[in-house]
Amino acid sequence: PYNGTSCDPRSGLKHTFYHAFIPEWDFTEETYFTSIMNMMTYDSVVDRSYVAVESPTGPPFQRLFSSYRGIGRVFTIVAKAPSGAVSVYVPTFTYSCNTTYNTATCGLMMTTFVKVENALLAFIGLFICFKGHRYYLTNLFIMGSITGTFVSYVFLVKYVTTEVDFIMIATVIGMVFGIIWTSTWWCLHSPILSVLIPLFNCFCLVTAILYSIVRDMLPVFESDVNYWVTFFSLSLVFLFLSLPRPLASNVAASSVVGAYMTVVPIAISIGSSIAYVF
After folding, report:
1. Cβ(137)–Cβ(182) under 8 Å?
2. What is the dihedral sign for C-alpha 211, 212, 214, 217?
3. What angle (nearest 5°) sits at the alpha carbon of residue 132, between those of residues 130 and 135?
4. How far is CA 155 from the centre of its chain?
5. Which of 69, 119, 130 is nearest to 94 (CA)?
6. Could you report the per-residue pLDDT of 159-216, keeping only the tens digit for each?
């Protein structure tokens, strides 16, 4: 025992996990050491960081965090005894990438294809934001391509282990899906069916934005099942509420998705966390 407090973990010690972010893409030594110093005392930890809520699954001393490359985060644990004595563990730090030799590796690998695609993405985003609803078939193709690219990229990253250019392959798959989705208008001539993809894209984006605000406050979403069920349920609720007015909903969805597509390439270039929203 120390000062009357037993070191036995069963003696009533309460452990609280804390984490704090540092400014985006700030790799300076001054910020690094200042961030660690801010997590060295109990009062400073409480004032400058957030409590990491307990995970609903896994060991009691395990916490799960989202990882954002290039965005530093400091972690520490505070142990508090029933007597009121507190002890702060040595903080740990990560940028979620290797900054030893080159901080540029923390961002997206800016190949020539990625640079060209980013430029096209910004242009297409502006187009569908302001004019997409006037060119219906073009908008269908673009929205279908976005959906196909996103879904195929997720599956490629998760299940393909070989070193390939996932972005290029996903883009090709997305364009094929865009052609298939556009053909639904020629085959069925159903406006309701045709606007499903634009509306679904929009409400997936809205749901992702809402989740990005509360993700660290709701530990229930650390379960993949809970996350995806809630994500798609909210998206589908928004979708079905919008179907009675397909024209107005399609215009609004095109504006929201187009605006985000315009901002994302800029965010990727400057290293902003906006790109991590969706």
Report:
1. yes
2. positive
3. 130
4. 16
5. 69
6. 877 766 777 888 889 999 999 888 888 887 777 777 788 888 888 888 888 777 766 5
**CB distance 73 to 31 below 8 Å:** no
Residue with tokens 């965005």: 71
Average pLDDT over residues 138-142: 87
**Cβ 57 vs Cβ 223: under 8 Å:** yes
One-letter amino acid of 122 = A
85 is written with which tokens? 């004595």
Closest by CA to 61, choosing from 100, 17, 10, 3, is 17
H-helix segments, the chain? 29-37, 42-48, 112-130, 136-159, 166-188, 191-194, 196-214, 224-242, 246-270
Report d(CA 137, CA 178) in Å as an integer: 10
User: Which is it for strands 92-94 and 73-80: parallel, antiparallel or unpaired?
Assistant: antiparallel
> What are the structural domain ranges in the chain?
14-104, 109-276
List the beta bridge partners of residue 75: 19, 92
| 3 state SS of 7 | coil
User: 52 by DSSP, 3-state: which?
Assistant: strand
Task: Print the SS3 string covering 63-102.
Answer: CCCCCCCCCCEEEEEEEECCCCCEEECCCEEECCCCCCCC
With CA atoms as reference, report the closest residue to 116 among 71, 165, 160.
165
